[in-house]
Each structure stands twice: as C-alpha cells, then as structure tokens.
C-alpha cells in the first residue's frame, strides 16, 4: 500500500481539490511528500451518502462477520509492516519503540472489540414475557435490544497517531457497535492516516462489508470537519483534542435541526495528591517516578500529571529535589507539531511570568526549534485558588506543585478543580483515613482514581474508564478507552407484542444465537 495523498471515499481513492495538507517531519519541520488534497463539499456528500446507505446492511451483519471484519483490519495494519512505523515516527516525532507499542495497542483494541461483538452481551437483550392473566391489566410482551446509532464522524488525535486516530478506540468501538465511520484525519499525520485508511478499506472489501462502512477525509481548514458534524446523515461524533476544537464541534452538533451526541475528550491536568506518610517514607522515589511520567511522550499525554498537591514542608522539599534532579537530567524532546510546540512555549511563558508562580526547574535545553523543554513550577494554595488560569492544561511536559498549608486546604483545592480524566493518590497505610475523606470529592471530579501510580499508560480492558466530567470530556457517562466505549454508539429499542417472525433474531424465544439475556430481569437459564 502506497501513500498517494488521496481521500478514501468508500472503495474509491479520490484526489481532493480543496486546498493542500502537508505532512511534516516533526524533528526537522521538512515538508513530506506527497501533498494531500483536502475534501470538497461534494466529497463529503459522497462519503455521507455511502455511509447512510451502508448503515442498515452493516448493522445487521452477523456478529461473527463483524468480529472477523475488525480482526481483518487489525491484521492489515500489521501487514503494513515497517512502512507504517517509519512514516508514523517521522510524522509524530515519537520514538520508534513507542510507535510500535502503540500499533500493538491499536491491533489489541480491535481484537478486544471483535471479542465483545462475538460475545453479544453488548446488545443488552431483555425480555419481559407477556402476562395475559395479570390483573387489573394484562402485561404486554416486551423485548429490548440495542441497535447502532448510525454513521459516526471520528476526529483522530494528534498525540496517538495510531491508537486514537483513524482506527483508534473511537473508530473500533463505533464499528463494533454497527456504525459506519467517516474519519476526519488529523493534519499532523496524514501519511500514517492514509496507510491505516487503506488497510481498513481493504478489510471492508475482503470481508464483503458495504462500501460506505468506512471513509477517510482530509480537511485543509476547519470547514469540512464542521460540515461533517453538521451533516444530517451523521448520528454521533467521537473526538480527541483541544477544548476549543471539541467545544466548537459540540456547538455545531447541538445547533443542528437534529442535535446529536458528541463524545469529545478534551482537557485534563490529572492532579497527583501526595499524602503525608507516603511523602515522608518515599518522597525521593515518588519524585523520580513523577518526573518519568511527566516527560513521557514529551508530556503530550491527555493523562499527563500536570498538577501536584501536597502539604508544604521538608518532605515536599525532598520530593521537589528528587523530581528536579531527574527533570534537569532529561533532554528536551521533539513535539508533535510546530503548532503544539508553539502553544506549549506560550503557555509555559505565561506561567513563568505569573506573579503567583515560581519556576522550580527546567529540563534539558531544546537543541532544535521543534523540541519542548520540560518545566516544573510551584505556587501556593492561596494563589492557586485565586487564579483560575493556573487550573488550565498546558499540553506538554509542564507541571505545577501547589504547596498547601494543611490537608483541609488540599481538599478545598480538589473541590475547586474542573473535571479530570485521572487523579492519582500516593498513600501509605497510615494515610488511608485521610484518603477516605478525599474519595467522595475525587469521584465527583475524575473518571479514574489511581493509588501509587500515574495516569499515563491507559490499559485497554473491560473495566477501564478514560473519561470524566467536563472539560475532561463533553459527556461524563462513558469512556473512550476499553470495551465499555461501545455503548456510546448504541441505543435501546423495545418491541412490544411483535410477532416472532418480525422480531430480530436476538429476541427470538429459542435464543438461537445463545446470547446472554435477561428474562424478567434475571439471567436466562441456558441449557
Ligand atoms: P485540536 O486542535 O483540537 O484538533 C483536533 C482535531 O479537530 C483536528 O482534526 C482538527 O483539525 C480538528 N479541529 C480543531 N478545531 C476545530 C474546529 N474549530 N472545527 C472543526 N475541526 C476542528 O487538537 P490537537 O491538534 O491535537 O491539539 C493539541 C491540543 O489538544 C492540546 O493542546 C491538548 O490540550 C489537547 N489534547 C487533549 C487530549 C485529551 O485526551 N484530553 C489529547 C490530545 C490533545 P486539523 O487537523 O485541521 O487541525
């Protein structure tokens, strides 16, 4: 498969004529070949029409066929071999080992969703059999299953060019649910996007899925992405990126004639809470581990530890000394795009100038204009409370230590925070009583609460939550990582007193698919 700079509209490769998008070598800023043509309104219309016409066929494809389709995408991605890894490394500036690991995660989550589809439990089948003799009124026969929402628009993330991009978690979960997907590729990695798009297009063909099951569009501005969300044939949106971008799309979706859900994962500073006994016993070890988590991927993780809260004193000083020593020995790292690096430098510059903030340490100096230098700041609890701008995410290897006078003020600060993807507690046994008083507040603030670790490194599994209250996401009721993500793209339909011949097979009395079902609220006994 060759990178040609094309849009993928169903099974066609189409040259976009609406402006140009260029991939860049992240380390040098050099423009890469080929240039990509942006989609026109006509291209968008063609992709949406194909997705619309594919929907009723794709969503009723047998579960086994849908599962094999997901596995086929995974295999085709692996078959791209080194060409995918090399292009992704150049476009993202991420180290090869990280990109290879991310490919493993991408393939792994496609296979996980294949298993979820085969299992069939996601259909959530419930049957309340008729009770014709019930007094005073007979009960009707009620049968519920979940169906796919409709074609989904996915906006890939810049910082996970594989696992959160063209066939990342959003696309995998939408396809698993039975939704055709139209991806608006992230302009930071167009070559990577086209390669993965070609692998997916081939799987559609090989598995006999309807043509409009998958399309990939490039946009040279913001127009086509917004028009995609505004298109009446799109029924839901998955997005990972900035708060401004996510909210722009939420607003487009909300003002349509038919508003649709947008699952946007946006901004989080992932507070790290250091409790007194843990700090006393392990300040140096926690400080070093914190520095490692902060600089991972040049700090360009949505789960990056951007805020540290602890009671001021000599133990916190030991933590800061250890983190500072580790950070100052860490070389600067290439950032994803010139735009992201510029935004990082600007935000770090503003923090450094802030009257209530001091710089604790800088990481190794940048040796190219494409690198970001790590930085650790500190402030007081009082200044942090009075300056909401200090609560904002700085996307990159920057973090802020807040020195609190006591545990009570630390709890007040947690209460004042916006919604978060993660929060991490560093605790020893003697801290449990204190930690317990924080948990109700943390549950209200975050999607995932960890003990003695950092939020970076999101396990893809059944019990993972990668979500949280606004602005971590635009809808806190779900997750974008893990098998639960499939439920974002499903809705329940109930069939009342419907003759069996008209019922979908999942709801037939004999349970021919051997699904896990609830009968009158109880698990069905399977013989
Ligand atoms: P971004 O600028 O929000 O872009 C994400 C995607 O949305 C891109 O495809 C972009 O198009 C599109 N887009 C942005 N604004 C739009 C608008 N107003 N209308 C229509 N489409 C729009 O995000 P980014 O480039 O990844 O920038 C990095 C920022 O994202 C960071 O500062 C960080 O705060 C945030 N981020 C958060 C997470 C998280 O998980 N919470 C993860 C990664 C990044 P183009 O491709 O044309 O730019």
UniProtKB/TrEMBL annotation:
Domain of life here? Bacteria
Q: Which EC numbers does the record give? A: 1.2.1.26
| Catalytic reaction equation(s) | 2,5-dioxopentanoate + NADP(+) + H2O = 2-oxoglutarate + NADPH + 2 H(+); 2,5-dioxopentanoate + NAD(+) + H2O = 2-oxoglutarate + NADH + 2 H(+)
- From the UniProt record, which GO molecular function terms apply? 2,5-dioxovalerate dehydrogenase (NADP+) activity
A Pfam family matched in the record = Aldedh
Q: Which family does it belong to?
A: Belongs to the aldehyde dehydrogenase family.
Instruction: Spell out the protein name for this chain.
Output: 2,5-dioxovalerate dehydrogenase
Q: Which organism is it from?
A: Paraburkholderia lycopersici
């Amino acid at each position: 498969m060759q990178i040609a700079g094309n849009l993928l509209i169903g099974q066609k490769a189409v040259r976009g004529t609406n402006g140009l998008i260029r991939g860049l070598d992240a380390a040098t800023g050099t423009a890469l070949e080929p240039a990509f043509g942006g989609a026109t309104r006509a291209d968008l219309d063609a992709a949406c029409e194909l997705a619309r016409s594919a929907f009723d066929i794709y969503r009723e494809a047998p579960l086994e066929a849908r599962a094999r389709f997901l596995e086929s995408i995974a295999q085709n991605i692996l078959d791209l071999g080194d060409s995918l890894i090399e292009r992704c490394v150049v476009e993202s500036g991420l180290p090869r080992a990280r990109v290879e690991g991310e490919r493993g995660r991408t393939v792994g989550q496609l296979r996980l969703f294949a298993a979820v589809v085969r299992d069939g439990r996601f259909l959530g089948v419930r049957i309340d059999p008729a009770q014709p003799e019930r007094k005073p009124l007979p009960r009707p026969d009620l049968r519920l299953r979940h169906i796919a929402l409709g074609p989904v628009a996915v906006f890939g993330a810049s910082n996970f060019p594989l696992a959160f991009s063209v066939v990342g978690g959003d696309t995998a979960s939408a396809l698993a649910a039975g939704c055709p997907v139209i991806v608006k590729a992230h302009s930071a990695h167009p070559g990577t996007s086209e390669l993965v798009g070609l692998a997916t297009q081939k799987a559609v063909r090989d598995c006999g899925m309807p043509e409009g099951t998958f399309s990939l569009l490039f946009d040279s501005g913001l127009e086509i992405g917004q028009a995609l969300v505004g298109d009446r044939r799109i029924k839901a949106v998955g997005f990972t990126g900035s708060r401004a971008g996510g909210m722009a799309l939420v607003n487009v979706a909300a003002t349509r004639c038919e508003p649709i859900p947008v699952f946007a994962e946006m901004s989080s500073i992932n507070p790290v809470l250091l409790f007194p006994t843990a700090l006393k016993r392990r300040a140096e070890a926690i400080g070093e581990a914190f520095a490692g988590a902060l600089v991972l991927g040049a700090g360009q993780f949505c789960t990056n530890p951007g805020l540290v809260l602890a009671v001021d004193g000599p133990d916190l000083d030991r933590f800061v000394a250890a983190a500072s020593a580790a950070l100052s020995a860490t070389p600067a790292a290439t950032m994803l795009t010139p735009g992201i690096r510029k935004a990082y430098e600007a935000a770090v510059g503003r923090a450094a100038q802030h009257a209530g903030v001091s710089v604790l340490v800088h990481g190794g100096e940048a040796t190219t204009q494409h690198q970001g230098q790590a930085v650790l700041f500190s402030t007081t609890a009082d200044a942090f409370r009075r300056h909401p701008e200090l609560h904002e995410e700085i996307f990159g290897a920057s973090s802020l230590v807040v020195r609190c006078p006591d545990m009570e003020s630390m709890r007040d600060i947690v209460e004042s925070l916006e919604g978060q993807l993660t929060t991490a507690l560093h605790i020893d046994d003697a801290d449990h009583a204190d930690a317990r008083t924080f948990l109700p507040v943390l549950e209200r603030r975050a999607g995932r609460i960890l003990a003695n670790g950092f939020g970076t490194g999101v396990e893809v599994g059944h019990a993972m939550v990668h979500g949280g209250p606004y602005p971590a996401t635009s809808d806190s009721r779900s997750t974008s990582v893990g098998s639960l993500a499939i439920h974002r793209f499903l809705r329940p339909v109930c069939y009342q007193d419907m003759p069996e011949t008209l019922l979908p097979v999942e709801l037939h009395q004999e349970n021919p698919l051997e699904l896990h079902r609830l009968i009158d609220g109880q698990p069905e006994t399977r013989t």
